[in-house]
Design a protein that fits this description.
By secondary structure, the chain is mainly alpha-helical. It is about 80% helix and about 0% strand. It has helices spanning about 1-30, 40-45, 50-70, 75-90, 95-110, 115-130, 135-145, 150-170, 180-195, 200-210, 215-230, 235-250, 255-270, 280-290, 295-310, 315-370, 375-455, 460-470, 475-490, 495-500, 520-525, 535-540, 545-555, 560-570.
Length: about 575
């Protein structure tokens, strides 16, 4: 027995040393991921699990304002509540915010209140800038007469111009383009007017220092003090924390940059802010600075992408997708490395199990020869059985990990396919919209020239004839034809697949020459992800009631429930990418 144990002891020692070395190497690589992680990052990770709760809280507050708005009678009360609804929707839902700011503009006009009107125009320009509609924002800002503005309104005006030209410069892409020069001029204008009692003074002061050689220490101290005294439940707190993080970045202080950028993201999540920049910045920092925290960067960039698509922020979405591609590539490589490590461990466990079996056989033989040492052998056998059981459990756990990794790879492939499809559809329709808008602009320009020439010659009857001859039926028909062609190019089997959801005697039969009818177009938009009847009606130039009637009629011709039918429609049609 002693000779047998001595024979295999060296082998077990070698195997255990290999396992310990591999485990230590894995532990060290994980330990070096982020030696000093600020506490705010852990808080942020925790809050990401409760984003729906914060959104629900914001929506509940909005619903309370809506109920009060219904009780309003005077123009001033309606304007007050509509402005509150705009402010609450501004960072949550851009479409709803645009709806309420337009109502504020109408109410200000009706009341003849220039201050309300100017404030609402500035709000709308800021909203358009945030969503990437920079041309529309610039047109609004150009329409404002600065000579009629009060000091506080002028500060807001210059601040919006800084925000707008910052986006224009970012959209241009070049580091020293003229938009950034104009942005700097407007920053100087803000700083010449604003005083330290203004709520946004430190925010503007911080942005004024960024990119210059000014000493930021006094502003950093003031911002830190302000945030320390705040309840951290307002959008301004998120903005202050963001600019503070950027100032630390300029000082090469990466620890405090990460700390305060995470704080900005925390406030954004608490107030349900969908127009969130700090999370993208934090993901980029974690990924670019070589600390290897790919899991956290991957989670942050996915959150940022969801928010940029739901808000939507066009400029930010493109930047996020580019960064997400880089992170995803590293993430996939890491999964492959983990799979290789798992295989190595599995091979070592199998080898160890094999030699353990040999050991058991040897022990049994020795036990038959040495009955006098039965007690010692029984104890040794018991220990060996425990080791076999532990190894069996380890093998089961490794198998479970393999299954989880396989499922994760499958999910990632599905998400990549969905992302490719969404990107391709967007690219196709954005090109179509740009082409269609360009055509309409050319037609309007031609009509403008003709009317101008007729007006110059005082041919008023001809002018009247030009305007009375306008008929958009052909344009709408062309719009439908182009939409049908593009959609069926992407989903060539859509019509037949949709008919398969209907009862055999209730299926849609298209007229000769038709690609799709109105009912098919409605559900084509549903397939693209647009489910709101009002938005579908706006897109197809028809009444919301018409859309509702078509959808109700279609559901009556199928055996599916309402939700099942919607789920089936969203998944039909074989996507054809290029």
């Amino acid at each position: 027995m002693k000779n047998f144990i001595t024979k295999y002891a060296s082998f077990y020692s070698a195997i255990l040393c290999i396992l310990i070395c591999l485990g230590s190497q894995s532990a060290c690589s994980k330990k070096d991921v982020n030696l000093i992680t600020p506490s705010n990052v852990y808080i942020l990770d925790s809050l990401l699990n409760h984003t729906d709760d914060f959104t629900l809280e914001r929506l509940t507050h909005i619903e309370e304002i809506k109920q009060k708005r219904k009780m309003a009678h005077s123009i001033s009360e309606k304007y007050l509540y509509d402005n509150l609804l705009f402010e609450n929707f501004y960072s949550l839902n851009a479409d709803s915010a645009l709806h309420y700011v337009d109502k504020c503009i109408k109410e200000a006009n009706k009341a003849g209140n220039k201050e309300w009107y100017t404030k609402s125009l500035l709000n709308k320009a800021g909203l358009l800038t945030a969503t990437g509609l920079l041309k529309g924002a610039l047109d609004i800002m150009s329409s404002i007469n600065t000579g009629e503005l009060s000091k506080s309104q002028l500060i807001d005006y210059y601040g919006q111009m800084v925000y707008l030209y910052s986006h224009l410069g970012n959209f241009n892409g070049k580091p020293n383009n003229p938009y950034y020069v104009t942005e700097r001029l407007y920053k100087d204008s803000v700083m010449n007017l604003i005083d330290s009692s203004h709520r946004e003074f430190l925010w503007y002061k911080g942005w004024d220092i960024l990119g210059t050689k000014q000493n930021p220490d006094s502003v950093i101290e003031a911002l830190t003090k302000s945030l320390g005294q705040s309840k951290l439940n307002e959008r301004q707190d998120a903005k202050d924390a963001y600019v503070l993080a950027r100032l630390y970045e300029q000082k090469k202080d990466h620890f405090n940059y990460e700390q305060y950028m995470a704080l900005s993201a925390i406030v954004d999540i608490k107030i349900a802010n969908a127009e969130i920049a700090s999370m993208e910045e934090l993901a980029r920092f974690l990924f670019d600075n070589g600390n290897g925290d790919v899991d956290r960067a991957y989670r942050y960039i996915n959150y940022s992408l969801d928010k940029s698509l739901s808000y939507p922020n066009r400029n930010r979405a493109f930047g996020i997708l580019e960064l997400m591609g880089d992170i995803n590539e590293v993430y996939q490589k890491r999964i492959q490395d983990n799979q290789k490590h798992t295989q190595v461990f599995l091979v070592l466990v199998c080898i160890l199990a094999f030699f353990l079996i040999l050991s058991i056989i040897g022990i049994v033989r020795q036990n038959r020869r040495m009955k006098k040492q039965g007690t010692d052998l029984a104890a040794a056998n018991e220990q060996l059985h425990l080791k076999v059981s532990a190894l069996s459990n380890a093998e089961k756990q490794l198998n479970e990990l393999n299954i989880q990794l396989t499922d994760l790879n499958s999910d990632l492939k599905k998400k990549n396919a969905q992302l490719y499809e969404a990107n391709f559809v967007k690219e196709e329709y954005i090109g179509y919209v740009f082409k269609l808008c360009s055509g309409y602009i050319d037609q309007i320009e031609e009509l403008k020239k003709n009317i101008y020439l007729k007006a110059m010659k005082k041919q008023w009857k001809d002018v009247e004839k030009l305007t009375s001859d306008l008929d958009m039926k052909d344009e709408v028909k062309e719009f439908y034809q182009t939409f049908d062609t593009i959609f069926l190019n992407l989903y060539p089997n859509f019509v037949s697949d949709f008919n398969s959801l209907l009862k055999p005697d209730k299926q849609i039969v298209l007229k000769e020459g038709e690609l799709m009818n109105m009912e098919l177009r409605i559900y084509a938009l549903v397939r693209l992800g647009i489910t709101d009847s009002v938005k579908i009606a706006d897109f197809l130039h028809c009444a919301p009631q018409t859309v509702y009637n078509y959808r109700l009629r279609a559901r009556s011709r199928t055996n599916f429930s309402k939700q099942e039918f919607m789920d089936q429609v969203k998944s039909i049609g074989n996507f054809v990418g290029h």
